[in-house]
UniProtKB/TrEMBL annotation:
Domain of life per record: Eukaryota
Name of the molecule in the record: G2655 protein
Domain SGNH hydrolase-type esterase: 147-352
UniProt entry keywords in alphabetical sequence: Signal
Region (Disordered): 208-241
Gene3D superfamilies: Galactose-binding domain-like, SGNH hydrolase
Keyword Transferase: no
Domain Carbohydrate esterase 2 N-terminal, chain residue ranges per copy: 31-130
Recorded name of the encoding gene: g2655
Signal peptide: 1-19
């Protein structure tokens, strides 16, 4: 049901007011009293979808969340990228997209960077004419959860092309392995990841854009702490897992507990297993796929000795869980050939190209265990460039 407010802003015909007119992909703290905005975005690759019709342009108002750094967004209309790399730094910003034609359309607003770098909000969406709605079907009912740290967020994956400073311009989670796989299957997903975080180790701290702002949190979360949050950067937020039960969970977690050849504390294995059991308790039927990254990918980030120790430790915990009859748990080892050359993104992280090669194998594996087929562009809920 479209809702109109015509008086407030003369040049605007329709302004979106209720959250019921929006579809969400990823975790979002909902705005109180069902309003659509201001909608805070924290997680990388999280999107809102707004259906509308018969407008010539659509305008989106963005602003940065105080106490955090900058973010980047992408905007799609009918799954086609119309604005890439909209950067939110210090100032609020309006972005207007001019449309080709009348008829029904879908606007997708996607945050492509992680909360550790910054959070932002959409303060409003409006049309010059036409109306919002009708709601599209909510997709195929496929759901994935993707859990990890920098690699899973696509940290530094654009470094080749964009350089590595500022770091928020070198990260695009939409072309990281997990979202690529979810998009292939038209699955909704949550990407639960934070650079530097381990099972025990805290992630990197948030650095506010203005040095005089207090950061939302002094230290980043561990991965298990992050997993419990509705808003990545808000330690007081809590996610209701019954709202989103994945059929497939993709995990690459704990590498940051191994650095420079030092062993993690002796309770690492127990805590790793405890976390996987927690994930299982929230998704009793899910296939849990632990990504076994080749040492060629982890070595440039944390050195040979740690890369080897981490790979062995993960394999051991998975074996132990299986031995205690933990069902539908898979260790998917990726071959070194996913790195087709020795090119690296930032701080030793994989490039977008390596992510794409990883995704091709993970897709096959997920297809094998779920019998999911790929979606055509016409049915996909997510994005195509
Ligand atoms: C809206 O679209 C029309 C037609 O393309 C264009 O002339 C106008 O300048 C646009 N308005 C804004 C605010 O971009
Ligand atoms: C965005 O557009 C709205 C409506 O015209 C206006 O009130 C607001 O000041 C604009 N914000 C910026 C940053 O231009
Ligand atoms: C979390 O709650 C505590 C205690 O109420 C409060 O002091 C703190 O500011 C809150 N943190 C955030 C990020 O809201
Ligand atoms: C590893 O050690 C080097 C040299 O001391 C240091 O610069 C680097 O930050 C360390 N890496 C990690 C992940 O601790
Ligand atoms: C998926 O199954 C096919 C057919 O059994 C097999 O050839 C292929 O290796 C499997 N792919 C993965 C990634 O496990």
């Amino acid at each position: 049901m479209p809702t109109f407010i015509t008086a407030a802003i003369v040049s605007l015909c329709a302004i979106l007011v209720t959250g019921q007119q929006i579809s969400y992909n990823g975790r979002f703290p909902r705005v109180s009293n069902g309003a659509a905005f201001p909608q805070r975005f924290s997680w990388a690759a999280s999107s809102i979808y707004v259906p509308f019709q018969d407008a010539q342009n659509v305008t989106i108002a963005f602003s940065r969340v105080q106490g955090t750094g900058p973010s980047q967004f992408e905007i799609r209309v009918d799954s086609h990228l119309v604005e890439s790399a909209t950067s939110l730094t210090t100032k609020p910003q309006n972005v207007t997209v001019t449309l080709a034609g009348s008829g029904t359309h879908s606007l997708a607003i996607t945050k492509i960077t992680e909360a550790a770098l910054g959070e932002a909000q959409v303060d409003g969406v409006w049309l010059d004419k036409g109306s919002f709605g009708p709601m599209r079907s909510s997709g195929l009912g496929r759901r994935m959860e993707i859990i990890g740290a920098s690699i899973m967020n696509g940290y530094g994956n654009l470094g080749n092309d964009q350089g590595c400073q500022p770091s928020y311009q070198a990260e695009d989670a939409v072309v990281a392995v997990g979202p690529l796989v979810a998009n292939h299957f038209g699955a909704k997903f949550g990407l639960i990841a934070w650079t530097g975080a381990g099972i025990l180790r805290k992630g990197v701290e948030v650095r506010p854009e203005n040095a005089n702002e207090q950061p939302l949190e002094k230290q980043g979360p561990t991965i298990p702490e992050l997993y419990s949050r509705a808003d990545a950067g808000d330690p007081n937020s809590s996610f209701d897992h019954s709202q989103f039960t994945p059929q497939v969970v993709l995990i690459e977690a704990g590498g940051n507990d191994f650095s420079n050849g030092t062993k993690p504390p002796s309770n690492w294995g127990a805590e790793y297993k405890r976390f996987l059991r927690q994930v299982r308790s929230n998704a009793p039927e899910a296939d849990i796929v632990v990504l076994g990254l080749p040492v060629d990918i982890t070595r440039p980030i944390r050195g040979e000795a740690s890369a080897q120790m981490y790979a062995q430790a993960v394999q051991q915990q998975v074996q132990e869980l299986k031995a205690e009859n933990f069902q539908k748990l898979h260790l998917l080892r990726l071959p070194a050939s996913v790195m087709q050359d020795s090119t690296l993104g930032c701080n030793g992280h994989p490039t977008a190209n390596t992510h794409m090669n990883m995704a091709a194998i993970v897709q096959q594996f997920v297809a094998n265990i779920t019998a999911w087929g790929p979606t055509g562009t016409e049915t996909s809920f997510l994005y195509h460039n």
